[in-house]
Amino acid sequence: MYLDPQSLAPSSSPATPAPRPLRVGMIGIGTVGAGTFRVLARNQAEIAARAGRGIEVVVVCARNLARAVDVVGTGVALTNDPLLVATHPDVDVVVEVAGGSGPARDWVLAALRAGRHVVTANKALLAEHGTEIFAAARQHGVVVAYEAAVAGSIPIIKALREGLTANRIEWLAGIINGTTNFILSRMADAGLGFAEALAQAQALGYAEADPTFDIEGIDAAHKLTLLAALAHGVPLQLHKVHVEGITQLQAIDMVCAERLGYRIKLLGVARRRDDALAQGLELRVHPALLPATHLMAQVNGSMNAVMVQGDAAGSTLYCGAGAGSEQTASAVIADLVDVARLAGGAPTQHGVHAQPIAAAPAPAVLPMAATRTRYYLRVPVADAAQGCAQVTQALADCGVPLQTLLQHHEGPGGVGDLRAGQRHVVVLTQVALEADVDRALARVAGAAGVHGAAVRLRVELLA
Ligand code: HSE
């Protein structure tokens, strides 16, 4: 039967009044807060059309009120009391973009208890106190949305919660810290030193207030904690993430990696294991070698990328700016639009429940020794031939299969703080158990002719 589209047009109905705008209170008007305010103002009409109603900032909490006026003008109420915003009677949703995890916990809990929805970019807060915060949100029938907390502009929370919801996630791996990716890219491509590259990242507003969180891998661990909970249905368990940052990386390893056809990235990995050796979840943040031809290896500067392997979808890859003012604001506002669309309904019916899903039974986090992957090893030696023999023997004795072996000989000047003329044995292994690699390295450390500590980095093929 032919269906006349005209017949589907609604018959003339009385005009319904426009729904009232969603009223926002903001705690923090720094890099992300200012970006949120600007984008909300600039794209007001588009955002209102998509949300079904306007989104209006009615009150802002700032430490520096004079500077806040420069950002928001005089039409918005200003305060320096975060709790006043959290419980303000004219506010429907509190945007927390102040950062930090101690006081922010109190503000967010106060907002939830007062029946306000919360949108936050605060990964540290949720990784540390998320269990309590999501429980409070459930109890009070409101939403805690946190797209901006992970990977900046990339809608990875939405992808995991909605787009990939049919899948059993086998693994996910991400470049989820913009600062370290910026530093590694500048070191590899522009020959910058670590300190200079970090200073540039700070000047661009990518780094955390305490950049230790970035360079020591803690920020990436916060984000991985949130991703793993969503992807694998495990509790938020920051303390179980194995964390290594980039401060111990040496320039020579970036050179050797490149010579072998790899790039070094700080990676967060949450991989389900269900094999003869282990059942559980690998949960780790560390520098890793990626094949230079892999798309993830080409994600440079402050860009982030997350690759997800689902049993039905296969591999999907999400890439975008991982930090920055309007880039992160884009995710904050996406959450605000989701909240605006709730229109008084129950959060779970509208798919905006941002709580990690508790699957039963959740896989336990595996010890690092149970990790199975490929490895890059570099051993400084006195004599190349003798060194090669010692390293290959130790690997064979410990059941670590070898893939590639090369000798690296520093030219005059050396690389970084290594002395000129130093020789190294550089090895790529096939897939091996980390415990076996540790045993092999312990043997090598005791061998005559080994000149200094061996370096061990993990290699991820992401295939
Ligand atoms: N310091 C963080 C980063 C900001 O560099 O990725 C965004 O979370």
TrEMBL record:
Chain residues that bind NADP(+): 27-34
NADP among the record's keywords? Answer: yes
Catalytic site: 223 (proton donor)
- Organism, by scientific name, is Acidovorax soli
In the record, biological process GO terms are: methionine biosynthetic process; threonine biosynthetic process
Lineage: superkingdom: Bacteria
Q: Where does L-homoserine bind?
A: 208
Q: Which SUPFAM superfamilies match?
A: Glyceraldehyde-3-phosphate dehydrogenase-like, C-terminal domain, NAD(P)-binding Rossmann-fold domains
Question: Low complexity composition bias: which ranges?
Answer: 1-15
Q: Which UniProt keywords apply?
A: Amino-acid biosynthesis, Methionine biosynthesis, NADP, Oxidoreductase, Threonine biosynthesis
The protein's Enzyme Commission number: 1.1.1.3
Q: Which leading EC class covers this enzyme?
A: oxidoreductase
Chain spans, region Disordered? 1-20
Query: Where on this chain does NADPH bind?
Result: 123
Q: Report the protein name in the record.
A: Homoserine dehydrogenase
